[in-house]
Amino acid sequence: MQMSSDNTKCQLMVIGAGMAGMAATLFAAKQGLRVVQAGLTGEVIYASGVFDLLGVYPPEARLERDDPWDALNELVTAEPQHPYARLAPDAIRAAMDTLTGYLAEIGLPYKGHLDRNTTLLTPVGTVKRTYRVPESMWAGSQALAAKAPCLIVDLVGLRGFSARQMVETLGQAWPGLRTATIDVPGTSVHGPKYPEHVARMLEVEAERKRFAAAIAPHVKGVGFVGLPAVLGIYKTSEILADIEKCLNARVFEIPTMPPAITGLRLKEAFEQHLPALTVEAHYHLRVLDARSVAGGGFELQIGNSTAEHGVLADRVLLATGRFIGKGLTPERDGIHEALFNLPVHQPRHRNEWYAETFLAPQGHAVSRAGIETDAHFQPVDANGQVVHERLYAAGSILAHQDWMRTKSGVGLAVASAWGAVQAIAQQVAKSS
Description:
Layout: E1 8-15, H1 19-30, E2 35-38, H2 68-78, H3 89-105, E3 110-111, E4 118-121, E5 127-130, E6 133-134, H4 138-146, E7 150-155, H5 163-170, E8 177-182, H6 195-202, H7 205-215, E9 224-228, H8 236-247, E10 250-254, H9 261-273, E11 279-282, E12 286-292, E13 298-303, E14 307-318, E15 328-331, E16 334-337, E17 391-393, H10 403-406, H11 409-431
Parallel strand pairs: 1-2, 1-14, 2-11, 7-8, 7-9, 9-10, 14-17
Antiparallel strand pairs: 3-6, 4-5, 12-13, 13-14, 15-16
Helix pairs in contact: 1-11, 3-11, 7-8
């Protein structure tokens, strides 16, 4: 791989554009570092839009937790190799507050309680505990807590959402919950509807007034109205306020099945606003090749099937995810890290990857496979030695965690990105 004089030079290359990569880029830019980021942002679309910190612990008991900080204390005591154990609670809190503060600045506000999880409805009618929710979902948490009279609205033909199922599931515990079905004005009654189609339509003021008018005959006697998360992509607060005014009721969104509008909002917000922080972003390209160079640092090639850009980076943060993000590759002979061929913590034999039953209380060993790091989120080998003094890792690629079962995906991504960037900033300061 040859580098020319016009290739980009930066202090930090962030590889990956999921939640860990986006958070790391934000934190590094706010530290004043020159950042280049590359990765496919498509996986962000699959985010529910809610920010879990730690909702279930221990996962074997499926114990849902109202206080994530108490649960964190238990986790780091029981699992000292978990990525959360690398960080003090104040650092984890600072990471989440910095992310949500930035999102509020760019028009995507989040809400939650100071020291406890909130609860919200899911699209299948269950109740979930999470740390922060989009402001557009906050009234739903309040309605759920009070069991207030509430209408859940079904849209004819909408994929990934069923108000009827929600009411049937929760009706006994929430007697004031009822449902209504409307057709979205201006669309086909019989054809399928996708959340993005409805969301883009509601960006138009006249269309959302027609939408609210179709709901209005059903709201008598209720103070809250729940809708699938379709209230626009760029103007959600404005759309929500308009519909509330038309209905004279508190309105809230409920997550839909992925790919979800809430994930698309995050993707669009990051893509539009992070480059303004002097970030050089390549959000639809991958890092095809990465090599360390004499004297420290890395040479990287970015592109799709062939190289389109070259980067010379002082340091690299790897946030490529696990199998879906293709940060880890499962092969017949084991699990491999795809870019640097880093050592991967994993079961010794392939037949130990999975338990016999899918919902086994102990989970599956493959879910805890990943890259082991030291206290500064630098990858280490089997002997605990740092692989490269300028290489870091964050997010779901990290070993010794099962974010899906513990409902901690965003928290893990954001907190580990914070820890890695703080270590990078300290290293840069020492070397300057």
